[in-house]
Amino acid sequence: MLRYRSLTDRQRTQHEAIEAIAENTSSDRLLLQPNGKWSIKDNVAHLAKYQPVFIDRINRILLRDEPAFESYRAENDHEFPLWQTWEMRTLLDRLYADREEINLLINDLSYTQLSLAGVHKKFGRLTIIQWTEFFLLHEAHHMFTIFQLANNIEL
Q1: HSE of 69 in the Cβ direction (CA atoms, 13 Å)?
Q2: Any idea what DSSP says for residue 64?
Q3: Does the pLDDT of residue 126 top 70, yes or no?
């Protein structure tokens, strides 16, 4: 499966909407945890923290024959609470830097490499293209949550 424009465009720019969505949000609102759920900042921390996990997974797929992966859960990541303490600007800067690494990694892969696969515990065998789509859809889900929280829309 080859890269397709929608995938490449979203991979390159989708994350940029996070800052635009949250830019006029008060500090209090960034930290508001409705019904004990994640705040805007927690969602951004999760997205920023997951990018290195995604990079590691792609590199493992490139090095091994169909490695298996558990579902990533921030609650099980001992580093995630530290990321939640970071300032919003720090999280966004890290998000941008790691996205550049993702872009370089994925864009430099050959057709053969893009066809390599890893096995997700829940979703099964996914090629690197499918992992990238999964990554972007997951990010979009959290971005929608951020949009709802920033605009005081009930979850």
Answers
A1: 25
A2: S
A3: yes
